[in-house]
Amino acid sequence: MTSPRLCVVQLLPALASGGAERSALEIGRGLVEAGHESIVISGGGRLVEQLEAQGSRHISLPIGHKSLRTLILMPRLRSLLAELKPDIVHARSRLPAWLGWHAIRGLPAPRPHFVTTVHGLNTPGWYSGIMARGERVICVSNLVRDHVLRHYRGTNPQRLVLIPRGVDANEFPFGYQPDDEWRTRFFAEYPQLQGAPLLTLPARGTRLKGHADGIELLADLKDRGVEARLLLLGAREPGREAYIAELEALAEKLDVANHLVISAQRADVREVMAVSTLILQLSTQRESFGRTVIEALSLCRPVLGYAHGGVGELLTELYPQGRVPPGDRARLAECAASLMRNAPAIPSLTRYRLSDMQEATLALYAELVAEPRRRQSDR
User: Fold this and answer.
1) How many angstroms separate the CA atoms of 126 and 131, rounded?
2) d(Cα 145, Cα 138) in Å, to the nearest integer?
3) Is the pLDDT of residue 378 over 50?
4) Which of 36, 209, 241, 272 could staple 6 via S-S, CB 3.0–4.6 A?
5) Where in the chain is the domain with CATH 3.40.50.2000?
6) Closest among 271, 199, 214, 276 to 247, alpha carbons compared
7) Is the pLDDT reported for residue 56 higher than 50?
8) pLDDT recorded at residue 161
9) Residue 148 · residue 334 · CB < 8 Å
């Protein structure tokens, strides 16, 4: 039996960068490949071109701008939804979710089904509570699911659906290695990374990502007589100059500045991770998921990370040898040296694949559409 063609509208603040944005593109691609109609409404950004190249439609509307003036966009959003007649409206952020929820309430029956995804551990309160109002609430990890149930006691647990993010095995193939030409260019750009095992910490330039812990680890390995190099991949961002200067000062103080590179975001993350001896995930606060963990393991690269939050969940299940108690500096150095010397074998991923996430999300959409559309007052 052929499933009906769906029209799905995803709501986001913008399409610049981030986990929610990447997930929106991945689900949009999955919808298009399955023959459905995919539309994203957002304030735009650099990912729009990729979204449209994959077959989705983008409608520009600044629904993520945190201002009272954004409320005047609700009639426009409601008009758009009335015109598009989507089967599903899927909100991935709080302000777009509020606008979408109110817009749907003003539509005549049959109204679209309302789905939310909780991508992070938002501060509890009425404003964040909109993310628990979906007919289905997608949680990206058990940690997120527990967070929703703990802080929004009226939420029906049966409406919560665990759908972890997934890694594209075609983008991060098992055992992949870049060619010699790429290696020559990379190490010519960063000659200070040559001559020793490379540790890579891929994360944006914010203090919570544990860059200082990575620099201290480099110094502790040096004190143990273990040669290593460190790349803080993607930390150098506009507006973060004072933070970068702080990290550089720490590296000078610990006498490891010559073995460190702090780079801007790069398009060749796969290649960089593939030539790395060890991938670090040292966020000092709990992450809701930890995509870099599964990206590294998909490439067959060992991961060393703090065992809390979504990262701890993934490491416990997929690579327990890489777990370290948060902030345990001595154990971090000990585990890093052990993994650099003799990392345990890494099996191919059989879960947390992009196809798993896409199939589960599309199945959720189909399940909702098969249900009778309830009155908005019932939701």
Assistant:
1) 10
2) 8
3) no
4) 36
5) 7-166+354-378, 180-342
6) 214
7) yes
8) 97
9) no
Q: What's the pLDDT score for residue 377?
A: 40
Q: Which residue has the tokens 């690579």?
A: 319
**Which amino acid makes up residue 262?**
I
Residues 275 and 198: beta-carbon distance below 8 Å: yes
Secondary-structure class of domain 7-166+354-378 per CATH: alpha beta
Q: DSSP of 119-153, one letter per residue?
A: -S-PPPSTTGGGGG-SSEEEESSHHHHHHHHHH-T
**What pLDDT, in 10s, does the model give residues 75-100?**
999 999 999 999 999 999 999 999 99
**180-342 placed in CATH 3.40.630.40:** no
- DSSP code per residue over 204-228: -S-GGG-HHHHHHHHHHHHHTT---
In which order are the strands placed within the sheet that holds 136-139? 57-60, 37-42, 7-11, 88-91, 113-118, 136-139, 160-162
The residue behind tokens 């909702």 is 368
Structure tokens at 277: 């001896």
d(CA 353, CA 360): 11
Give the residue carrying structure tokens 């938002």.
122
Q: What confidence score (pLDDT) does residue 375 get?
A: 45
Instruction: List the structure tokens of 249.
Output: 């000062």
